[in-house]
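One example copied in:
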Amino acid sequence: MIKKRSYLFVILILVFMSIFVFFSLRDRCSKKDSATCRINIEGNNLKLKVAYSTKAQEHGLMGVEDLREDTGMLFVYEKPQYLSFWMKNTLIPLSIAFVEPDGKISAIYDMYPQPGVKDNELAIYPSPTPVMYAIEVPLGWFAIKNIKRNSYVKIPEKLR
């Protein structure tokens, strides 16, 4: 009788662990601030935090002191538009890719912090075409992965 209870207990633990793992690994990608999306660019995977609201987009990665490899931020817009980014109050160097609605990268820039520089003197990084997405990652990530202008990003359906 004790052995049967032990086996039942072990089985219950395994079932609960399986449920936990299933819900932990589930794709939580959505058009919500701080949602996490996994995207693929030319065979390279990224785990990105979504900035969807104007407030989240304006804040971006300000104040962030470190980004792990293969992580970053995905800025999602409702319609294609020309965008410009700057490094106001950003502490770490970043690379940014501007992404058109079909997933084509129209430009990649390396951006560096500019402490002590007045807002009106900060470098501006503009998209050359109307885009719906911008991806910020640790400096040099795109170059290391051999991702260039005209490469394609697989945008999750939930973000289109």
Observations:
- Residues 18-26 have pLDDT under 50 and may be disordered.
- The first strand starts at residue 36 and ends at 41.
- Helices lie at 2-25, 54-59, 141-144.
